[in-house]
Specification:
single chain, 212 residues, mainly alpha, rod-shaped
């Protein structure tokens, strides 16, 4: 059983380990599952630096700031496509050196037309790089489309609210006008003139203030 001193120490440690508190810290921690979880373990291969992948993931989080699971999926897809493209670009450069070394003095076009194993692999690598680029652009398009739909839906909800508000206000004003127009004569809302005013001369019927 823990002693009172140990309990006090544990509580003090808990207060110091409540997670990130700044906006920047919370933003980075939100992406930790993507950077440090199974994704990082599966995509970083021997010879690659996990710190480089973490840095790239941080850049993507800072730029796109996913706010939902679906947005995180699109950003994750873009990140993986980017990382794999960078990997193959290094392979592409090595293959260029290889095919040129196989046929010294020949042009690059002639070497590629020879269709050596290295030349065929180079073509395949270039196609895969293009495929990763298409994947990146599709994910980026879907992310932007989803965010636009969210903004449009929010704007439509606001427009509906304002329309209902104006309709209700107009109905209330119309009711007030109708109530005022149909008020009982003699009430404060509909003042009337007194039939005994102004006083008149009994003989002439003219107002007294005209009598000399």
């Amino acid at each position: 059983m823990a002693t009172p001193a140990q309990i006090t120490a544990n509580r003090a440690n808990a207060q110091q380990s409540t997670g990130p508190r700044s906006v920047e810290g919370k933003s980075v921690s939100r992406f930790n599952a993507l950077k440090h979880g199974l994704d990082a373990a599966s995509i970083v291969i021997p010879g690659e630096d996990p710190a480089d992948y973490d840095a790239l993931a941080t850049h993507y989080d800072s730029e796109f700031r996913p706010q939902s699971a679906s947005e995180s999926f699109h950003v994750d897809t873009m990140l993986r496509a980017d990382w794999q493209k960078r990997r193959l670009q290094g392979v592409e450069a090595d293959l260029f050196h290889t095919v040129l070394a196989e046929s010294p003095g020949n042009s690059l076009a002639a070497v590629l037309l020879a269709e050596s194993p290295a030349a065929k692999l180079l073509v395949r690598v270039q196609r895969q790089i293009a495929a990763f680029e298409r994947t990146w652009h599709r994910a980026n398009t879907e992310l932007r489309r989803a965010r636009k739909q969210t903004v449009d839906a929010a704007g439509e909800s606001l427009d509906n609210y304002l329309e209902r508000f104006h309709a209700t206000t107009a109905a209330q004003l119309a009711s007030i006008r109708q109530s005022t127009a149909s008020a009982v004569p003699g009430s404060p809302a509909a003042p009337t003139s007194s039939p005994d005013w102004p006083p008149t001369d009994e003989k002439t019927g003219k107002p007294l203030y005209f009598v000399g």
